[in-house]
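Pipeline run #58 for the internal structure catalog. This entry was flagged by the ingest filter as a single-chain record with no existing model, so it goes straight to prediction. Upstream metadata was stripped on purpose; only the residue string is passed forward. Reviewer on rotation: M.T. Logging verbosity set to normal.
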Amino acid sequence: MGERRELTVDGGALRSFIPALSEAVLLRSAAQRDHEVHRRSLQEAPLADHQADALLKAAIADSDPYCWLFVAFGLNTAMRHSEILAARFDQVDWEKLRLHVPEAKAGQREQPITAQLRDILKREREGWIFPAQRPKLSKVGHRTRMDRPFERAVRAAGLNADLVTPHVMRHTAITNLVKSGADLPTIQKISGHKTLAMVLRYTHVHGQHIDRAIATLGRTVPELPSNETASTVAQELHKTAKAARVVMLSRRAATSRHR
C-alpha cells in the first residue's frame, strides 16, 4: 500500500475562489430567471383573430366531444382552466349573462359571459358542464384537466403547442378587452384578478388602442392672422399676463395698508 497523502487547502486561494463561484452561481440564476420570464412572455402571447378561429375549428373536429366547448369557454370568458371545468349549468343566470364561480383565486364572483356562449350552453344538458369521463371514479364529478385534447387542437390548427397553452385563451380574451377600450375595473370584474396591478400587465405599450387613446389628446395650433406670427402673439400674451400681475400686487398692497 502506498503512503497516504493529506490534502492541504490554501485558505487564501479558497477565499479568493468563493466570490468568483458565488458570482458565477448568481449569473447563472439570473440567466435562468431571464430565460423563464422570456419563455412565459412568449407563451402568453395572445392569439390573433384568425388563430383563435383556427383553434376553435380544430377543437370542434377533435375526438374529445368537450374540447370545442372548453375552447369556446376560454375565448368567451377569460376564465381560468380550473374555473371553466368546475362550472355547472345551474350556476348560469341565463337572463343576466352571469356564471356564479363559487371558488376562485380572488374568492367567489359573478362571471360575465357572452350571449354567444349562453346560446351554446342552452343547447347542452344539465349538471356539470364538463362531467367526469368516469363519474363513478371521480372525486369531484367533473373533469379537472383538458391539456391533451387542447394540445391536439392546437397542433391541428397549425399553432405551436409549446407556446399555446389553455392559459393563452385567457390572455387573449383579456388583451381583446384592453384593445376594446374597456376600463381596467371592468376588465378586473370579468377576468377575476384580485388586484388592478395584475390587470395592468395586459396594457401593452404598443397597440391600436393606445394609438386611439393618444389621438384624443391631439390639439392643433390655432391659425394666426396673416399679419401676425407666433412670436408676436406670444409677446402680447406675455404683456397681458405681466399687466395682470401688476394689478394683483397693487390690490394686495392696498388691502394690507387698510388693515
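catalog note: The two ends are 112 Å apart (CA to CA).
catalog note: The chain has eleven helices and three strands.
status: ready for reviewer M.T.
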